[in-house]
Specification:
This protein is α+β, with helices and mostly antiparallel strands and 97 residues long. The chain is 43% helix and 16% strand. The structure holds zinc ion.
Length: 97
């Protein structure tokens, strides 16, 4: 190896957001992970949303809590208002004719 061009490759502790730690080797002094084999659904077999360092919380703060059910209700409400608006326009057109 040529001297002075290679970064230091040392043993480091990788720390996951779930609290799991393990030793590995890297050129970085420390590793912070969002997900690891101890908490990823593929390895745990559980299908659940993993809040990686408060990302979900930040999203809900910014955009408000959104669930698929709430979205369906909002869609229905939008359709209903459209339908009533269409009826009203039809009524006015027949009245003028
Ligand atoms: Zn983890």
């Amino acid at each position: 190896m040529k001297e002075g061009i290679h970064p230091k490759y040392q043993e480091v502790e990788a720390r996951c957001a779930c609290g799991n730690t393990f030793k590995t080797r890297s050129t970085k002094p420390e590793l912070h992970l969002e997900i690891c084999s101890a908490c990823h659904p593929f390895f745990t077999g559980r299908q659940k949303l993993i809040d990686t360092e408060g990302r979900v919380e930040r999203f809900t703060k910014k955009f408000g809590a959104q669930t698929s059910e709430q979205r369906k209700i909002a869609e229905k409400a939008a359709k209903a208002t459209k339908a009533t608006a269409a009826k009203q326009t039809r009524k006015t057109t027949t009245a003028t004719a």
